[in-house]
Design goal:
Blueprint: H1 9-14, E1 19-25, E2 28-33, E3 43-53, H2 55-62, E4 79-87, E5 99-102, H3 112-115, E6 140-144, E7 148-150, H4 157-160, H5 163-176, E8 183-187, H6 191-201, E9 207-212, H7 218-223, E10 228-231, E11 248-253, H8 258-267, E12 268-276, H9 289-294, E13 298-301, H10 307-318, E14 328-333, H11 337-346, E15 353-357
Parallel strand pairs: 8-9, 8-11, 9-10, 11-12, 12-13, 14-15
Antiparallel strand pairs: 1-2, 3-4, 3-6, 3-15, 4-5, 5-7
Helix pairs in contact: 2-11, 5-6, 5-10
């Protein structure tokens, strides 16, 4: 159900900067008028260039996100890029005009976990742009300036809108700690998987395998740095894929299914390292703890991106080691929000990252 009709044609252009997507409640969404919020002390006002759609945005719209991690009514949008338009008191004026991206987690900076640099484990309670606080599916976004990561002056802002998922993958890459010459694999060939291929390729592994459920991303994976590609068995196959190669030192799982987690563990050598980034449904039967213990597998997990991972992703992007642009298949106006959610829902092979442009 839409709470306002969808703008078409020239009307869509007039929405730029003056409208926002509002999800009033699960199933109820549409465009509403938007007015920029002047930045207060320590804040910055960003003119949004593009905002990505991901599975968690779909959860917000469909009502599937756990209640502790969403607050309706809500302007969604946590994957974004833009240009600083104004700053509040106490913020350096030279930020104005800079291209930027920004962290979503509103960490407190003073608890023990924040002090240790583990900002996604902040004990002050969960708050995140686009889920409990207004997001970037609007003409502008106002947020604490301390969360900004500035970009090169010539940065591709559409590609930069993928730096939020890239930061999550950067957190996985830092935990994976691939050393030159090691054998590495990525299970999952969606946006996170293709970003993971690029991060791991930058560490000069001796072999880099990408594993998907079909081969439509094979050429892209190879272009982005994978040395091999494997199509794994059906999702209900149970344990290891008998046709999959093994003996990998480190495997990063990005698909978010129990079958993918099992496959990722099966690819490892004894004593290998497994990094899980996908989030399957609650209570999913996945890894066999006996197998993990007997083979002495190290299991690491990622939820969100701490500040250090954001900095790593932004550096890699600025250095040209991370090129998200090939993953973008759609750039749509805000008025096409419902269609964008449907595209993510359908998960067609030809659909990659979907961006909304205010």
């Amino acid at each position: 159900m839409n709470i306002e009709g969808t703008a078409e044609g020239s009307a869509a252009g007039t929405a730029a900067g003056r409208h926002a997507v509002l999800v009033q409640a699960p199933g109820a969404h549409g465009l509403v008028p938007h007015e920029p919020v002047p930045p207060g002390p320590g804040e910055a006002l960003v003119r949004v260039h593009a905002c990505g759609i991901c599975g968690s945005d779909r959860e917000v719209v469909r009502g599937h996100r756990p209640s502790a991690y969403v607050r309706y009514p809500l302007v969604p949008g946590h994957e974004w890029s833009g240009t600083v338009e104004a700053v509040g008191a106490g913020v350096p004026g030279e930020l104005v005009g800079r291209r930027t991206v920004g962290e979503g987690f509103r960490n407190c900076q003073v608890c023990a976990r924040c002090r240790a640099g583990e900002t996604t484990l902040c004990t002050a309670g969960y708050e995140e742009t686009g889920f409990t606080l207004p997001g970037a599916m609007a003409g502008t976004l106002t947020l604490p300036a301390r969360l900004l990561h500035t970009l090169p002056d010539d940065a591709d802002l559409s590609a930069a809108a993928l730096l939020e998922p890239a930061a999550c993958v950067a957190a996985a890459a830092l935990k994976a700690n691939v050393r030159p010459g090691e054998r590495a694999a990525v299970v999952g060939t969606g946006t996170l998987g293709m970003l993971a291929v690029q991060f791991l390729a930058a560490s000069s592994p001796g072999r880099l395998l990408a594993v998907g459920v079909h081969d439509h991303r094979k050429s892209l994976a190879l272009d982005l740095g994978a040395s091999d590609f494997h199509v794994r068995g059906p999702a209900d196959a149970g344990g290891a894929d008998p046709d999959a190669p093994g003996g990998f030192d480190v495997v990063v799982e990005t698909a978010g299914s129990p079958a993918a987690a099992r496959q990722a563990a099966a690819l490892l050598r004894r004593g290998g390292r497994l990094v899980l980034t996908g989030i399957p449904g609650p209570g999913a039967a996945g890894l066999d703890p006996t197998d993990l213990v007997v083979r002495q597998i190290t299991v690491l997990t990622v939820f969100g991106a701490p500040t250090a991972a954001w900095a790593h992703a932004v550096r890699a992007f600025g250095a040209g080691l991370l090129t998200p642009a090939p993953l973008i298949t759609h750039e749509l106006p805000l008025s096409d929000f419902g269609h964008a959610i449907d595209l993510v829902d359908q998960a067609a092979p030809q659909t990659g990252k979907v961006l909304l442009r205010p």
